[in-house]
Design a protein that fits this description.
By secondary structure, the protein is mainly β. It has two domains: about 150 residues, Pnp Oxidase, Chain A (Roll), CATH 2.30.110; about 35 residues, no CATH class. The chain is built from four helices and twelve strands; from the N terminus they run E-E-E-E-E-H-E-H-E-E-E-E-H-E-E-H. The strands form three sheets. The protein has a seven-stranded antiparallel β-sheet with strand order 3-2-6-9-10-5-4. Strand 2 and strand 3 form a beta hairpin. The protein is globular, with a radius of gyration of 20 Å. The protein starts with 13 loop residues before the first strand and ends with a helix. The structure holds flavin mononucleotide (FMN). The site of flavin mononucleotide has 20 residues, from strand 3 and strand 5. Flavin mononucleotide binds next to strand 3 and strand 5. GO terms for molecular function: FMN binding; oxidoreductase activity, acting on the CH-NH group of donors, NAD or NADP as acceptor.
């Protein structure tokens, strides 16, 4: 039986990303995990107003979102432990300036160069709404059609209650194939047991 545990942020895991921005002519990196997708052409980056990076994002109106791979996790974590206000993070990652004017981490499998189009401010957070000017991905992480292959990228995930990083899992099946043949009417939901729909899903594993 479910227990009501109150009003909790429970929408995890989310991808852990390193956001990059120029702050007063020096590159700065910050770990951010409160990110989201808005429609099909905007992303959200939620950053506490007290963070040093915010002033650079506001001044330039742009930022980069660098997905975190497992081999860059320790350095990415360092970007979340120290503030650029007191600790120079500019040497944490090798980087290049992207065509949209944002710092691109060489080691990151995929970087989105973003332009800030809006800021949905709450009392303590800047919630940057961004369009995507360019997406830079290592060839090794693209499929035959040139699309990012997240089964290969395996971005590191974050969860808040345990304040820990999680490894990306395995592909369970293809969307809109798993449920396609489940009959609509008269199929009881046998909650709590492995129902027929779930068993049908096993056949869809790719
Ligand atoms: C795993 C992890 C996730 C984090 N996610 C966020 C986040 O979503 N938003 C935020 O404002 N700070 C987040 N932080 C905290 C900042 O990364 C941290 O305070 C950082 O030192 C701020 O850097 P700055 O002052 O140089 O901007 C996170 C930290 C860690 C370790």
């Amino acid at each position: 039986m479910k227990r009501n545990i109150g009003s909790r942020l429970a929408l995890y895991p989310t991808p852990a990303v390193v956001v990059g921005a120029m702050v007063q002519d020096r590159v700065n990196w910050i770990m951010v995990a409160h990110v989201g997708i808005i429609g099909h052409d905007r992303v959200l980056v939620s950053m506490h107003k007290a963070h040093y990076t915010n002033q650079g994002v506001k001044a330039a109106g742009r930022l980069s979102i660098n997905l975190v791979s497992e081999d860059m996790l320790v350095r990415a974590d360092a970007a979340g432990c120290h503030s650029g206000a007191t600790w120079d993070k500019s040497q944490l990652f090798a980087w290049t300036m992207g065509e949209a004017g944002t710092p691109v981490i060489t080691m990151s499998p995929l970087t989105m160069e973003c332009v800030v189009t809006d800021n949905y401010e709450t009392e303590t957070f800047d919630n940057f709404i961004c369009s995507i000017a360019a997406t830079l991905a290592d060839e090794a992480f693209l499929d035959a059609q040139g699309r990012p292959d997240f089964a290969r990228i395996r971005p590191v995930l974050f969860e808040m209650p345990g304040y820990s990083y999680l490894r990306c899992g395995e592909r369970l099946g293809l969307c809109t194939r798993l449920g396609k043949d489940v009959p609509g009417k008269g199929v009881p939901d046998t909650a709590g047991t492995a129902d027929t729909a779930n068993r049908a899903g096993e056949g869809g594993r790719q």
